[in-house]
Specification:
The protein is mainly beta and 207 residues long. The chain has a single domain, classed as 2,3-Dihydroxybiphenyl 1,2-Dioxygenase, domain 1, CATH 3.10.180. It contains 3 helices and 14 strands. It has a 4-stranded mixed β-sheet, covered by helices on one side. A hairpin with a 2-residue loop joins strand 5 and strand 6. The longest helix has 10 residues. It is globular and about 45 Å long. The two termini are 23 Å apart. This is VOC domain-containing protein. Belongs to the glyoxalase I family. InterPro entries: Glyas_Bleomycin-R_OHBP_Dase, Glyas_Fos-R_dOase_dom, GlyoxalaseI/FosfomycinResist, VOC_core. It holds the Pfam family Glyoxalase.
């Protein structure tokens, strides 16, 4: 999961606006100028139902909440939060992992809170996270902790939402793929972990 920041799209000149369902704009006119993986971007011609600005949280269904909390706090430096539903203070306590301005809510498999995803299964996520730490240093720390790093244990180059990335891949206790990205001088880098998939500048697998 990649940390998102709010931004407003610049207005396009009338001559460039779409006249049909969608329209492709040249690289120089699109707002995502830092991303050079393609020379065209499809932009809706009609107003959408709503315009999204950032991601607040996502939900992971896991086999063991304690094991998941341990991995994400001890390996990825997230903070654990316990809370109850604002609509029912007497309900079963819930658990979340906090990082940046986002969080990951945890559901125990077989005991998910409603509503839930149609196919809420452990180990089916692929998340990408951004870090300000050097991905090479992170790779070394993962190795020292005995965590298996995918992609032959190397830092690899990938393409992110805003720029080119350098990543490391690992897996969490459920096998989710984790990719950790490092941003430096306009570049970002990835990391991954082992059972499901989470995308972040580094990728690693816990033994």
């Amino acid at each position: 999961m990649q940390v998102a920041s709010s931004f407003r799209r610049p207005a396009f000149p009338a001559i460039q606006r779409a006249t049909s369902t969608s329209h492709c704009y040249p690289y120089k006119t699109r707002p995502w100028g830092s991303l050079r993986m393609s020379s065209w971007t499809t932009v809706p011609s009609n107003p959408p139902v709503c315009t999204l600005s950032s991601l607040d949280h996502l939900v992971l269904t896991v086999q063991s909440i304690p094991a998941t909390i341990n991995f994400y706090t001890q390996i990825l430096g997230m903070a654990h939060q316990s809370f109850t539903s604002p609509s029912d203070a007497t309900s079963t306590p819930r658990h979340a992992l906090l990082f940046g301005s986002q969080k990951i809510n945890l559901h125990q498999t077989g005991k998910e809170f409603e509503p839930k995803a149609a196919r809420a299964l452990p180990g089916t996520a692929d998340l990408c996270f951004l870090t300000e730490e050097d991905v090479g240093v992170v790779l070394q720390r993962l190795t020292e902790k005995g965590i298996e790093v995918l992609e032959s244990g190397q830092v690899v180059k990938r393409t992110g939402a805003r720029s080119a990335l350098r990543s490391v891949y690992v897996r969490d206790p459920d096998g989710n793929l984790i990719d950790k990205e490092f941003v430096e001088k306009g570049r970002s880098f990835k990391l991954r972990t082992s059972k499901s998939q989470i995308d972040c500048s580094k990728t690693y697998r816990q033994k």
